[in-house]
Design brief:
10 strands; 34% helix; alpha+beta; four-stranded antiparallel β-sheet
C-alpha cells in the first residue's frame, strides 16, 4: 500500500513590522508606555464607539477610565507597555499609518521639560539642574525622574509633560537622568490672585449678638483643610470637583467675612497642583460666588 506523501509547508517570510512599531516595542519592554502619533504629530481619534466618550471612559482625559476599547483611543490614556496590545490588529493598522512614536512620561515615572526654542534651552542651562537631554526640531527635551501634573506655557517656550500628557520619543538622548528638582515643580505653582474676602455682615452673626461661629479658628481651619483634601484626592473630573468645593466653602464661610486671602491661596494652590490653571481657578471661584448670589 502506497504511503501518503507528506507535504511540508514552508512558512513564508513574516510581514515586516511598521517602522514606528519597531521603535515602540523595545521602548515598551523597558516599562515606558507608548502610543502611535498620526500626521500632525497628534494621537489617533477615538473610534465611533468611543466618540465623545460615549464609552464612559476617560472623560476630558482626566483619568484612565473604565473603557477597554481594543483600538488606539483616548490619546495619552491609550499608551501601553503590553506587547500583545501593541501588535494587535487594530493597533498594527494604526502603526502602519503612524508617523512617529509617543510615550506617556507620567506612566513611566518621568517628567519632560519641553524647551521649544534656543532661548528656552539657554534659560534651562542657567536655571535647572542638568539631566538627560534629547534634541528636538527646535529645542530640547530635558527628562527627569519623578512625576508631577502637566502644564503648558509655564514660561515662554517651556511646557511640562508628565501625568495625563504625552511626549514624542526622539531617541535616548545624552547625559545622566536626575531626580525631578523643586525648581521644575515651582514652575507650575503660580501666584494665586488676591481674593477679596466676602463682605462681612451679609448674614447676622447669630441670635443674641454672639460671635460668628465661622470665625472660630479650629472650625474654619478644619473646613479649609477638608476642602484641600477633597481637591487633592480627586482622580477624575478635577475641574468640576474644584468648582463644587469652592461652592461648598463659600456657602459655609463666605457670607460672614471670615475668609482671608491666605485661605483662598491654599485652595487655589491645591487646585493648581492638580493641573488647574489660574484662569480655571478664578472662573470657578467667580461662578461659585454668582451661584450663591454673592
Amino acid at each position: 500500500m502506497t504511503q501518503p506523501t507528506l507535504i511540508r509547508r514552508v512558512p513564508g517570510p513574516r510581514p515586516r513590522l511598521p517602522d514606528p512599531l519597531r521603535t515602540a516595542l523595545p521602548l515598551a519592554a523597558t516599562g515606558v508606555p507608548v502610543l502611535p502619533l498620526r500626521r500632525g504629530k497628534v494621537p489617533f481619534g477615538n473610534c465611533h464607539r468611543c466618540a465623545q466618550n460615549a464609552c464612559g471612559g476617560r472623560p476630558n482625559m482626566k483619568s484612565a477610565g473604565p473603557c477597554r476599547c481594543p483600538g488606539v483611543c483616548h490619546a495619552w490614556a491609550a499608551a501601553t507597555t503590553d506587547p500583545h496590545v501593541l501588535t494587535s490588529p487594530a493597533w498594527t493598522a494604526a502603526w502602519r499609518r503612524a508617523v512617529t512614536v509617543a510615550y506617556h512620561p507620567g506612566g513611566a515615572g518621568l517628567t519632560v521639560v519641553d524647551l521649544d526654542n534656543a532661548a528656552a534651552v539657554a534659560w534651562a542651562r542657567e536655571t535647572l539642574p542638568a539631566t538627560r537631554a534629547v534634541p528636538t526640531t527646535r529645542g530640547e527635551h530635558w527628562i527627569y525622574r519623578g512625576t508631577m501634573a502637566s502644564h503648558n506655557a509655564v514660561r515662554p517656550g517651556v511646557d511640562i509633560k508628565s501625568t495625563m500628557s504625552y511626549a514624542r520619543y526622539l531617541g535616548p538622548g545624552t547625559g545622566t537622568m536626575t531626580a525631578l528638582p523643586d525648581a521644575v515643580r515651582a514652575l507650575a505653582v503660580k501666584e494665586p490672585p488676591t481674593v477679596r474676602p466676602a463682605p462681612a455682615g451679609v448674614v447676622p452673626a447669630g441670635a443674641g449678638g454672639g460671635e460668628c461661629p465661622h470665625r472660630t479658628p479650629a472650625y474654619l481651619d478644619r473646613g479649609i483643610a477638608m476642602a484641600e483634601q477633597r481637591i487633592t484626592e480627586a482622580s477624575s473630573a478635577v475641574h468640576a470637583t474644584v468648582y463644587r468645593t469652592f461652592l461648598a466653602v463659600l456657602s459655609t464661610h463666605g457670607r460672614c467675612g471670615c475668609l482671608t486671602d491666605a485661605h483662598m491661596a491654599r485652595l487655589f494652590t491645591a487646585a493648581q497642583a492638580k493641573g488647574e490653571t489660574l484662569r480655571h481657578c478664578t472662573e470657578a471661584w467667580t461662578n461659585a460666588r454668582t451661584k450663591l448670589g454673592m
